[in-house]
Amino acid sequence: MPAVHDHVVSRLGELTIETPSWGYGDSGTRFGVFPQAGRPRDVWERIDDAAEVHRLTATAGAVALHFPWDAVDDPGELRAHIESRGLRVGAVNPNLFQDPAYKLGSLTHPDARVREKATAHMLDCVGIATALGSTAQSLWLADGTNYPGQDDLRARRRRLLDCLAEVYAALPAEQELLVEYKFFEPAFYATDLADWGSAMLMCTKLGERARVLVDLGHHAQGVNVEQIVAFLADEDRLGGFHFNNRKYADDDLIVGSVNPFELFLIFTELVAAGAALPRLTIDQSHNVEPKVEAMVLSVVNLQEAYAKALLVDAAALRAAQEAGDVLAGHELLLDAFRTDVRPLCARARLAGGGAEDPVAALRGAGYADRVAAERDPQEITR
Ligand code: RM4
Ligand code: MN
Ligand code: MN
User: Fold this and answer.
1) pLDDT at site 2
2) CB distance 283 to ligand 1 below 6 Å
């Protein structure tokens, strides 16, 4: 690779991916869970796994947490553990989708007492984030209805706005509120925050520190996600991402595995925005694939997509677009996308103290076997 790509290596060195604590633990589909040997038993071990991903990739220096899944008695102790592993706390994710009280909704529930409970949980999470040194609340609202007429769509929206306004007012200056949307599931008729438009409108009403979070798996088939990214960035309302990949629905597969071109186009829009990158978080569910290896591969795929986007010849692209040359611009994107950036990414990782080939290094280090022996010596399933 020519030295001319030094700028790409240095930009890659600044890339930070947040890995999700919930992506290390057991997960499954609604049909079953296949426990993996060596799966972390608690948040402390989830952090250890996140630290291993960062050690190998030099790019995963933050870990997003989910509450109450990651609740501990002393947040200060958790913060110290995270920092002792060379990590920092990423976004704090409240959980408004598992408590039995939320059967008909949380912040949109028809009963004010349930809304108060959900709001109180979010306010708790603001306190936890403050103690942990986190700078974001990241909300996925699972609320919705299953049948037409089940509830009043406009009333639900106003209830949601009232509750979120209370949370927003309690946010310390260094914290932002990320609002994630998802078009369906668990509700199947109407989801209260189903798309980027409803999330964006909510953010606009709340204030400038409320921004939209784009989860790549939360759109209907065929939706042009990179265009959504471009529009949100243009409005300065792009708060961040939940990276994953999908074939059919919210599949939570390894980012860049099914549709690497879409991922490249998303990074191309981020680079074109010319601003600092938004929060970049992985949100995946590794049900059959080895969890730490899946996370390492995900980070590598993100590095490669970003590197390719940095190789797009922006001046030539603009000239082609201004000349109305339909295919020249497209071919410029293909040039960048088809470039083998693996050596560049390896250089960036080595410069950051990571591994040249993180997946091979992980396998070679025997990490999976070691944690399997330490964490559950009885287990034989892998
Ligand atoms: C949802 C959504 C959220 C994540 C949960 C576990 O589908 O993507 O971001 O917190 O799953
Ligand atoms: Mn998500
Ligand atoms: Mn999801």
Assistant:
1) 53
2) yes
The secondary structure of 199-256 as a DSSP string is HHHHHHHH-TTEEEEEETTSS-TT--HHHHHHHHHHTT-EEEEEE-B-SSSS--BPTT
- Nearest residue (CA) to ligand 1, atom 10: 140
pLDDT in tens, 173-210: 999 999 999 999 999 999 999 999 999 999 999 999 99
Mutation probe of ligand 1 site: the residue of 180, 181, 185 with most atoms within 8 A of C-beta: 180
**Model confidence pLDDT, tens digit, residues 73-82:** 999 999 999 9
CA distance 129 to 161: 22
CB 93 near ligand 1, within 6 Å: yes
Residue 56: which H helix or E strand, with range?
helix 43-57
Question: Average pLDDT of 218-247?
Answer: 98
d(CA 58, CA 14): 10
Helix, strand, coil in percent for the chain, rounding step 5: 50, 15, 40
DSSP, collapsed to helix, strand or coil, labels residue 66 as: strand
Q: Which residues pair with 279 in a beta bridge?
A: 240
Look at phi and psi of residue 86 and say left if phi exceeds 0, alpha if psi is from -120 to 50, else beta: left
Alpha-carbon distance of 48 to 84, in angstroms, equals 10
